[in-house]
Amino acid sequence: MKKQPTWILVADRGRARVFEAGEDDRLNEVACFVDPDARAGESGLTTDRPPTVNESMGFARHSIEPHTPLRDKISARFARLLCDALEAGRNERRFEHLVLVAPPRFLGALHKALGEALRKHVVREIRHDFTELPAHDLQQRLSARA
Predict the structure, then answer these.
(1) Within a domain: residue 50?
(2) Choosing a second label site near 62 at 20 to 30 A (CA), which of 3, 37, 93, 102?
(3) Around Cβ 114, how many Cβ atoms within 10 Å?
(4) The whole model's pTM is what?
(5) Overall domain count for the chain
(6) To which H or E segment does residue 106 belong?
(7) How far, in Å, CA of 120 to CA of 118, rounded?
C-alpha cells in the first residue's frame, strides 16, 4: 500500500517553503512563498505621524497608538495566506500529515490561522527557524529530531 505523503511547512514571518516527504522520505519542494512587506520593516510601511482622533467636544486632536503592532498584523496576514495554501492542498488530498516548522512567535500566528480541519492533520511541530537551510540539511535536522 502506498504511503500518504507528508507536507512540511518551514516558515518564518517573511518566507516559507512547503516540502513533500514521500515514501523514500526525500524532501521535494512543493511551493515557496515570500512576503515582501515583512522584509520592508515597519518604517517602510508607515508614515512618520501616528493616526489621530478628534476630541468629542471642541477642536482638540490626539495621537493614538494602534492596538496591534504592524509587525504582528503582517505576520498574521502571511500566516493566513500560508494556511489557505495548505487548506487547498488538503482539499486536493495531496497530503495526509502536516509538520509545522517555525520560530515560536510565528508558530503562534499559524495556530491562530489554522482551521479545525487542517489542525487535525498536524502531527508534529518544531519551534526553530530552518528557513535558510537547504533541503538536504533540513531533512537531516528533521530526522535527528524524530
Answers:
(1) no
(2) 37
(3) 21
(4) 0.79
(5) 1
(6) helix 104-113
(7) 5
Measured distance CA(29)–CA(94) in Å, rounded: 13
What is the b/e burial string over 6-19, where b = at least 16 CB atoms within 10 angstroms of the residue's CB? bbbbbbbbbbbbbb
CA atoms of 2 and 96, how far apart (whole Å): 12
Find, among 124, 134, 117, 80, the residue nearest to 102 by Cα: 124
Query: For cell 502571511, what's the residue?
Result: 78
Q: Which domain holds residue 103?
A: 6-42+66-144
* CATH number of the domain to which 122 belongs: 3.30.420.60
pLDDT by residue for the chain (146 residues), tens only, comes to 456 789 999 999 999 999 998 777 789 999 999 988 766 555 455 555 666 666 666 666 666 666 777 788 889 999 999 999 999 999 999 999 999 999 999 999 999 999 999 999 999 999 999 999 988 888 888 876 65
Round to whole Å and give the CA distance between 72 and 80: 12
* Torsion 95-99-101-105 (CA) sign: positive
Inside any domain, residue 25: yes
Cell 521535494, located at residue:
28
On whether residue 61 sits in a domain, the answer given is no
